[in-house]
Amino acid sequence: METIKEQQLKEGEIVEIYKIDDRPQLVVNHQVTFFSDDQEVHAVQHSSLDRIDSREQSYKRRMKAIDKWSLLDYGWIDDPSFIVITNNEKDSQHILQIAFGPKNEAVLTINPDSCQVLNPLHPDSVYIRSIVPLSSYTIHAFPR
Q1: Distance CA 36, CA 81 (A)
Q2: Please, which pLDDT band fits residue 2 given cuts at 50, 70 and 90?
Q3: Domain hosting residue 131, numbered range
Q4: Rounded Cα distance, 42 and 39, in Å
Q5: What are the pLDDT digits (tens) for 39-71?
Q6: Residues 133 and 68 in one domain
Q7: What does the pLDDT look like over 79-94, one tens digit per residue?
């Protein structure tokens, strides 16, 4: 098995990506950095690589959330393995909420100009709503 090493330029920094074989794969990089008022820095970084069994294309759509719960739409992907929801709004009142299951109790929020990464066991029971009448978001869904 040959490892293919690719380099991409992202925000002035070279990011190395290792592709193990020609099967689809999902590379995820998280970085959270907290700067306290006493100059202490707390950073968390994590990377993962998941192979995708499907040859389906990923799904990306700009959507509108209303102030009532709606099931997330994954387009042609029946069972997504990984979901990224980005709140496209800039105004601080446009907060999105995420719920799991039929009770529709909000368990996650997505602040304006922020995103949330989901890996739900039951993607057919993930709901979204806006706390104001209408908010824009982008959904990215990746096959299993």
Answers
A1: 35
A2: very low
A3: 59-142
A4: 10
A5: 899 999 988 888 888 889 999 999 999 999 999
A6: yes
A7: 999 999 999 999 999 9
Number of domains forming the structure of the chain: 2
Residue among 72, 23, 65, 27 at smallest CA distance from 47: 27
* 113 and 76, same domain (yes or no): yes
In this structure, the dihedral spanned by the alpha carbons of residues 123, 124, 126 and 130, taken in order and rounded to 10 degrees, is 130
Residue that has been written with the tokens 């799991």 in this structure: 100
Phi, psi of 133 (to 5 degrees): -55, -30
For the stretch 107-126, pLDDT in tens is 999 999 999 999 999 999 99
Sign of the C-alpha dihedral computed for residues 11, 16, 22 and 23 taken in this order: negative
- Write down the residue that tokens 């709606």 correspond to: 70
> CB-based burial of residue 112 (10 Å sphere; 0-12 exposed, 13-18 middle, 19+ buried)?
middle
- Same domain for 132 and 79: yes
Asked whether residue 65 falls in the same domain as residue 40, the answer is: no
Same domain, 47 and 15: yes
Question: Do 139 and 61 touch, CB atoms closer than 8 A?
Answer: yes
CA atoms within 13 A of residue 69's CA, in its CB half-sphere: 14
Q: Are residues 31 and 92 in the same domain?
A: no
